[in-house]
Amino acid sequence: ILNVEQSPQSLHVQEGDSTNFTCSFPSSNFYALHWYRWETAKSPEALFVMTLNGDEKKKGRISATLNTKEGYSYLYIKGSQPEDSATYLCASHTGGFKTIFGAGTRLFVKA
Amino acid sequence: GAGVSQSPRYKVAKRGQDVALRCDPISGHVSLFWYQQALGQGPEFLTYFQNEAQLDKSGLPSDRFFAERPEGSVSTLKIQRTQQEDSAVYLCASSLGLAGTYEQYFGPGTRLTVT
To answer: Which of B50, B54, B81, B95 could connect to B102 by a Cys-Cys bridge, CB 3.0–4.6 Å?
Structure first.
């Protein structure tokens, strides 16, 4: 994998559903993986910065895991709420200065 | 406290005009990034500053794009002789420490439309 890829591109769920999305990134020269949440008409906000293989992070109902050997990270949202509707971006750092973002997963949570 | 601010928020330029986009990062933040975001895509890296030093400008699409951060705080992205393909949202972000290590704080972006 040369680029950062996110799937699915968009996701529609009902309130209360749990959901997860995938971020695939280059595993060579891995340095850090970031997750951001971007609500419409606002600026992207950081969720997690992850650096270690096997790392798991949690913030409220949102959690993330990291596998640097195979180059993927999962973001989980438990019991989705309408306010979780946003685009979720992941970004990879490979030790240089460049941040490579995926195209994002757009989540729609219906009440 | 104050977050990252950008100005102007919207800019309409005629093709061939020069534009300057400003970013005020969070005070004390070492790193500053510029990104270009096209509709439906994630932010695309343009350039990175560590204090006043521009350490990576590999993402600047052409020599019409120029960025500076002369005193290690405010940064300006300048686009000369704008073209229609330059129409995009330009995002600025700053972080407390070195690139990759710390989360980035984003500004609201400048939406540039070239007519």
So the answer is: B95
User: For chains A and B, what is the number of CB pairs under 8 angstroms?
Assistant: 68
CB of A98 less than 8 A from some CB of B: yes
> What is the rounded distance in angstroms from the CA atom of residue B20 to the CA atom of residue B3?
20
First-to-last CA distance in chain B? Answer: 37
Closest-CA residue of chain A to B55: A97
**B59 pLDDT higher than 80:** yes
Show Cβ contacts of residue B62 under 8 Å, excluding neighbours closer than 6 positions: none
CB A41 within 8 A of CB B111: no
Q: A95 at the B interface (CB within 8 A)? A: yes
CB A32 within 8 A of CB B101: yes
Residue of B nearest to A31 (CA): B100
Q: A39 — phi, psi (to 5°)?
A: -85, 150
Please give the average pLDDT of every successive group of 10 residues along chain A, which has 111 residues: 88 96 92 94 94 95 96 97 97 88 96 94
- How close is the nearest chain B Cα to the Cα of A87, in Å? 10
Asked whether residue B1 carries a pLDDT value surpassing 80, the answer given is no
Q: Does A33 touch chain B (CB under 8 A)?
A: no
Average pLDDT over residues B20-28: 97
